[in-house]
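MODEL INPUT / OUTPUT PAIR
PAIR INDEX: 1
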Amino acid sequence: MGDKRILLIGTYDTKDPEMRYIEECITAQGGKVLTMDVSVLGDPTTPTDISKHDVAAASGMTIEEVIAQGDENKAFRVMSRGAAAVVTKAYAEGRFDAMLATGGTMGTDLALDCAQTLPMGVPKYIVSTVSFSPLIPPHRLAPDVQMILWAGGLYGMNSVCRSSLSQAAGAVLGAARAVEAPGRDRPMIGMTSLGSSCLRYMKTLKPALEKRGFEVAVFHSTGMGGMAFEKLAGEGAFCCVMDFCMQEFANMLAGSLVSSGEDRLTNAGLSGIPQMVAPGALDLLDFAGWQEIPERFKDRPFHEHNRLIKSAVFNAEERRAAIAEMATRLKEAKGPVHFFLPTGGIEEWDREGQEAHDPEALTATVESARELWPAVAPTTVIDAHINDATFVEAVLKQFDAWVDEGIVVRSGSTTAFVGSAK
């Protein structure tokens, strides 16, 4: 329990007492630390394990050259690149088990880059004066990053500040000790879906695939879930993906904040992972519950899911554009792709009598897919709704064929697993 080492990242020139306090909190609980200074101008009271000179060098500059940038923003951009490179290398060398970074807006900007470099499952905490702030766009967040507000932490130590820092120290050390690394016994399938009232195929597919000897991870496609899915796909974590929910992809194209980022529908293909794809929930344009629906969408079919999220419905033209962009991205895949087209509907709320029912737009979706997809990948047309049993049966039939052909491997795993410091 006492051998876990925490990487501490901060500006030791201006926050030396705070960083040393965190170090004391961790070591008092039996943990170890690896200290990293990302300052530019000043120096810590005592040397850190990784100095600002090391960080600058990792970006290809000396600290004097960083200072010569003559601008705080430019200098910290250089230090961010160096810090991310140092974190990547240090983790690969097994020098730490978890990361804790501190900062205001500058330090948080750097910390976000560092967190993005670490694999899923490595505990990563950021104590920030702007935690949970709308200043931080979702795409900057590592999918499993944890943030704690640095209350009272702008300048100097105080009891409020100690409360935040001590919680962070305990949280990151506890996470490093408690984290359960992914198992290696079964290959993993990554699946996207949306709740269980909108898309239901996962309820049947997951147990059926588990009976076949596979592990199934289902990602909630409301932005952050898709980011985690793409992150793991990029790490080669899956033996196959069943990417059947395109809601956050269409949101990204429309500029909605309910998005998983610009790299959606790319990482599995770049990794050569076999992909099964369907246009589930491609019709939904999402807004945060607190947002006012823009005037141009107010005459659309509308579904208010809860106080956090509500949806308008894409029209025929917008759906055609989304189908076309799906095809464009998946043409670049290095592994096999199979497309499933349910002609009877693509999410539960588009059924007749439900809020999102728009038969003309659904027809446009189906027609566009029929025109585009056969030239991109093998296509199975299913004359049923995506939530009907027929859809699941078609998916399992194709999956079993891929297993028989050796495209999806039954034994072993391609999962990228979390390591640990020595």
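PAIR INDEX: 2
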Amino acid sequence: MQTSTDCWRASNEGDEQDKAAWLKAKRAEEQTASEAWSEQYRMPPLEGTERAVPWGVRCRHQILTNAYTALVAEGTTSEAEWAEIEESARTVTRAGWWIDQRSSEPEDLTELLRAATGADRVPCCGGAPG
């Protein structure tokens, strides 16, 4: 019986390594797509820790693309109304804010963006003295 257990363990460890490699590749693919999307739609860089920024970029991409699909492509939001939502989204640059909203419903995006605090947003005038 010990031999079967040893074989199972060895097989399972290989599966875990394969799963970890697959997940790492999937995350890298998502990151590349999210960064390309951010550049295409002129989204500002996010602020946060070394670990939070890439995660925040992926979350922002997923939140905004899901919201666009639900609100504009499948909903009643006009392109002009979406442009306002997108502009508001550009002001939220704290990676943690996007991470915190990752499970939100697309219909809640406008309200969530309105509720974002000053700590979540780009400082006025880029922080330059007046």
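PAIR 2 NOTE: The chain has one domain: 2-121.
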